[in-house]
Structures are given as structure tokens and as C-alpha cells.
Amino acid sequence: MKFTKMQGLGNDYIYVDCTKNILDNPFEVAKKVSDRHFGIGSDGLVLILSSDKADFRMRMFNSDGSEAEMCGNAIRCVGKYVFDNKLTNKTNITIETLAGIKVLELKTEDDKVVLVRVDMGEPILTPKEIPVESSKDRFIAEPIEIDGHIFKVTAVSMGNPHAISYVEDVENFPLCQAGPKMETHKLFPRKVNAEFVQVIDKSTLKMRVWERGAGETLACGTGACATLVASVLNGVTERVAKIKLLGGDLFIEWSEKDNHVYMTGPAEKVFDGEIEL
């Protein structure tokens, strides 16, 4: 199997062009290639396919083989892949995902993509649609107990579910203890991506993330978008902010005009290769 390893802020995936050839059993392939000792090493596998609804279609699989609806860092890399490999010459493209069709604006230098702005669509705030078990209209700053500590959690979906809570010192926060317990909490029937956030100021947030099926990653694009939405709802930031992640910075805007969330960030190729399956 020929592949390209790419990363967006350190959130690394193995990308495979499936526009002409189908990959059998991607669930098992994802587990094999993601292994950092016996495989290539990645947070998961991304397939780039043809689409009858958009310019391309993206399927993504976590390192444990589970399929996810969307990934903001991965979709930026898909945009770079299809343009740099001349699968398209357009700088405005559409990508079909399990979370709907996303619109990408590709910013290029020397005929290569360096930045991607993604229209991530409208945030989902209705508990049933996120999903989170709640009888309220929205799940904002609701208490969830983990190991005797009460977290005030705001639930947002950007096509995949997120639970955002605030801590005083995110760098020293015990993410590996709290993250998996939040991910599998009984209130989240489809599990959840857990974001723990430190407010720096009205336009800057510092975030760490525990992703469903992958554990801690260096960045999460949908998580950064969900975090901005949650932070606006909690009154701690403006509608435009820089989200500082372990792998770098994302710039997120929640537009008042169309209620869409826009994410801008880098996408980089690491290397091409082949692996025997």
C-alpha cells in the first residue's frame, strides 16, 4: 500500500489515495499502520475517495480502528494532499465527511498548500444530537464528577461530540487520568472527545485534548472549534480566538453572520512510503 504521512499541528495520520483503488478492511489497516512500534506510527488512517456529492470524500479511522465522523486537522491535510498531488487545481474545494460536506479554502505558496481555512459548519448544541444524556435545551457548565472532582462541562458537537471543561493549569493537569474517564462517562452514549482548557485572555485559550479511540493527541481541530463555541457560551472569550495546542496554534472564528465556525491552520507532508499489509 502506498501512503503519505501528513500532520496538522502534530496530529498525524496516514493518507491513502483511494480515488481509483478500494482499500479492504480499513479498520484493521488503521490499527496496523498507527502502531508506533510495529507500524508507521500515527493517530489513525485517512482514506481519500471520490464523491458524487462533493469534490472528494474523506473517511477517517482512529488508531484503535474505530471510524470517526470528522477531524479538523485531518481535513486540512486532505486539502493539501489533493492539491499538491494535482488531483484538483481548485483552491476552493468541498469534502464529503460523515459530519456533512465541508468547504475548504486553500492558501498556496509556490504551487503548494501552506494554510487551509475550513468552514466547519454550525455547531450542534442540542443534547440529543451531540449526543449527551440531558433533559435541558443545552448542556452548558453542567457538573460531572470524576474521581471526586466536579468539572463544569459544556457539550458541543462539530459533527463529533466534545466535552469542554476549564482548569487553572492545563499544562500540569492529569489528563491521562481524567481524559479516559470523561471519554467513557455514562452521560455520553457514543463516548466523547474531552477538552481541558485554560483561559489566557479574551482572545487566547490553551487546550489539551483526550480523543475518542486515540488518547491524548497534539491537536484536535474539531475540538478547538468546539472549545471556542463553549467559551463564547460561557462568556470567557470573544467570537474569534487563538487556540494554543501542544502542536501549535489554530485560529477559530464563530461567525455571527451565518453561525458557522471557521478554522484556519497549517497542513504539512512528512513523507511518502509503502507498507506491506
From TrEMBL:
GO cellular component annotations of the record: cytosol
Pathway the protein contributes to: Amino-acid biosynthesis; L-lysine biosynthesis via DAP pathway; DL-2,6-diaminopimelate from LL-2,6-diaminopimelate: step 1/1
Functional note: Catalyzes the stereoinversion of LL-2,6-diaminopimelate (L,L-DAP) to meso-diaminopimelate (meso-DAP), a precursor of L-lysine and an essential component of the bacterial peptidoglycan.
Name of the coding gene: dapF
Compartment annotation: Cytoplasm
Assembly behavior: Homodimer.
Name of the protein described by the UniProt record: Diaminopimelate epimerase
Family note: Belongs to the diaminopimelate epimerase family.
Enzyme Commission identifier(s): 5.1.1.7
Catalytic machinery residues: C71, C220
Major site of localization recorded for this protein: cytoplasm
Domain of life: Bacteria
Binding-site positions, substrate: N11, N62, G72, N73, N160, N193, E211, R212, G221, T222
GO biological process terms held by the UniProt record: lysine biosynthetic process via diaminopimelate
